[in-house]
Amino acid sequence: MDHFPIFVRTRGKSVLLAGGGEAAIAKLRLLLKTEAQITVAAEDPAPEIVAWEAEGRLRLIRRRVEPGDAKGCVLAYGAHEAEEQDERALQIMSADGALVNIVDDLARSQFITPAMVDRSPVVVAIGTEGAAPVLARRIKAELEERLSPTLGLLTRTARSFRGRAEALRMGEPRRRFWGEWFESAGPRAADTGADLDDTLASLLDRHLNEGPRKGRVEIVGAGPGDAELLTLKARAALDRADVVIHDASVSPEILELARREAILIAVAEAADGPTISRDDASALMIREARQGALVVRLQTGDPASSGGLDGDTAALTAAGIAFGVIPGIASAGPQRQPAALEEA
Fold first, then answer.
1. Residue 307: which residues within 8 A CB-CB, separation 6 or more?
2. Does residue 144 sit within a domain?
3. pLDDT score, position 279
4. Burial classification of residue 189, based on how many CB atoms lie within 10 Å of its CB (0-12 exposed, 13-18 middle, 19 or more buried)
5. Nearest to 161 by CA among 177, 147, 137
6. Is 101 inside any structural domain?
7. Which residue range(s) make up the domain with 311?
8. Number of domains making up the chain
9. Pair (193, 287) in one structural domain
């Protein structure tokens, strides 16, 4: 990773852009979506920039950039589309202490501006480190289609409600509440024109009055170790898991798909972090599920081909723990199926 992605705070901060042509206009259309205090230094600014100044959306200095202009700026852009002018701007603005981007010049830029999907306050940034801008635009287009236009509205409503949601126990209860808001209750309310604040309050009341939630175990196949070959159902289970009990031979790329907050426990083989024996794995699954956790038992290959699957499912059934089996893809041939793949 040659460029580390971050989100820079712009509210109340200064940003300088040197240049007044088409490249400057394109960059300003993005910057004007922020809450930054924008200054443009340009000897011959385009009419659009002059109009934005008249509207009070930016400050315009009708000359080329000079030493001191970028003092205190968090970001600065060179957008002259002329190598000599941009090099001069780079030297001046860097000396002033600003991070500088030269538009369409990766080699000289100290940071890059990614392609963005804006559902503010939800912002998705897509970068290819300059290697494939066309690919970044294609990914952006796909995400624009998939992310509802109401996502920003739902997120803003949730932000104002977050303090009240702290009445729910931290961890799985809060995740389940917010998951239902963003996945079903919120979009449905937005589509029907219902009051979002009232909907969110009713949803919270229901979650607060629910009894303790029973845990569940998902026995998941990691396949041959390639994260790209995991099923969507397996990825979804890892994304929701509170505890992941995994064979130590499962690849780091697959473990990276687990939630950051999930507890990872390796089974049998030597590995970094806590390690348990296979004999203890079933008991741990049952104990964690009884405490309300979603447990993923992540096995190398396919669970149906594992000698321990029937023992695990029998123990879970005897303990009254709900479970499911998500087959892996270790083999393209016929696979033995357990007597019961699902217990509700």
1. none
2. no
3. 73
4. buried
5. 177
6. yes
7. 216-330
8. 3
9. no
User: Is 90 part of a structural domain of the chain?
Assistant: yes
Strand order in the sheet with 275-276: 275-276, 263-267, 243-247, 294-299, 216-221, 322-326, 342-343
Q: 229 and 318 share a domain?
A: yes
pLDDT in tens, 290-339: 888 899 999 888 887 766 688 888 889 999 999 999 986 644 444 444 44
Q: How many Cα atoms are found within 13 Å in the side-chain-facing hemisphere of 168?
A: 26
Closest CA to 226 of 294, 134, 328: 328
- Is the Cα torsion angle 62, 65, 68, 69 positive or negative in sign? positive
Q: Which residue has the tokens 């004999």?
A: 279
C-alpha 44/C-alpha 257 separation (Å) is 51
202 and 224: one domain? no
pLDDT digits (tens, 9 = 90+) for 231-274: 888 998 998 898 999 988 899 999 999 988 889 999 875 545 55
Query: How far is CA 79 from each of CA 64, 94, 311, rounded to the nearest angstrom?
Result: 12, 15, 66
The per-residue pLDDT for 338 is: 42
Same domain, 95 and 193: no
CATH of the domain at 251: 3.40.1010.10
Residue 269 main-chain phi, psi, to 5 deg: -90, 160
User: 244 with 217: CB under 8 angstroms?
Assistant: no
Same domain, 231 and 204: no
